[in-house]
Specification:
This protein is an alpha+beta fold and about 160 residues long. It has one domain: 2-Layer Sandwich (60s Ribosomal Protein L30, Chain: A). About 30% of the residues lie in helices and about 30% in strands. A 5-stranded mixed beta sheet has the order 4-1-7-5-6. It has a two-stranded antiparallel ribbon with strand order 2-3. β2 and β3 form a beta hairpin. The termini are close together. The protein binds magnesium ion (MG).
């Protein structure tokens, strides 16, 4: 059985007056992330990792921010729409590993919920999803707390063909 690997990266700017959505969870904070959808930078990185593993392009091409139906969308919808493209190709999610880089808020209390929500969106066991959080040690735009970035790696296993 062959395994395919993809990497995803995303970053979004903070804005006041928006809920902060990260890896499918609403995290209490003074600011949320700007985006046409809910701005869930972690799930966007996951979608790009899945699309990368399948060589299917990227999230901007599949879910353009000019599309009215994605306005304010729960980013779990992007994950599910991506899975619908993988299934017919005989590709299933193996595992996903996410790193979220945020100076604040502290994300440790939310890791378990983020793993569970991401696993639910992916249709896999929570044990197949890793979520890690790091600060940027005060350096650069991430260190100044201007926004949040996320990296994700995903593996796909061939189920048929
Ligand atoms: Mg994004």
């Amino acid at each position: 059985m062959s395994t395919r690997v993809g990497i995803g990266y995303d970053s979004h700017r903070f804005a006041a007056g928006r809920p902060l959505r990260l890896a499918g969870v609403t995290v209490p904070h003074t600011h949320g992330l700007v985006g046409h959808s809910d701005g869930d930078v972690a799930l966007h990185a996951v979608v790009d990792a899945l699309l990368g593993a399948a060589a299917l392009g990227d999230i901007g091409a599949l879910f353009p921010d000019t599309e009215p139906r994605w306005k304010g969308a729960d980013s779990a919808q992007f994950v599910r729409a991506t899975l619908e493209r993988l299934g017919p190709l005989g590709l299933a999610v193996g595992q996903v590993d996410i790193t979220i880089i945020a100076e604040r808020p502290k994300l440790a209390p939310h890791i378990a919920a983020m793993r569970a929500a991401t696993a639910r969106a992916l249709g896999v066991e929570p044990g197949a999803v890793s979520v890690k959080a790091k600060s940027n040690e005060g350096m650069g735009w991430l260190g100044r707390g201007e926004g949040i970035a996320a990296l994700a790696v995903a593996t796909l296993a061939r189920t048929s063909g």
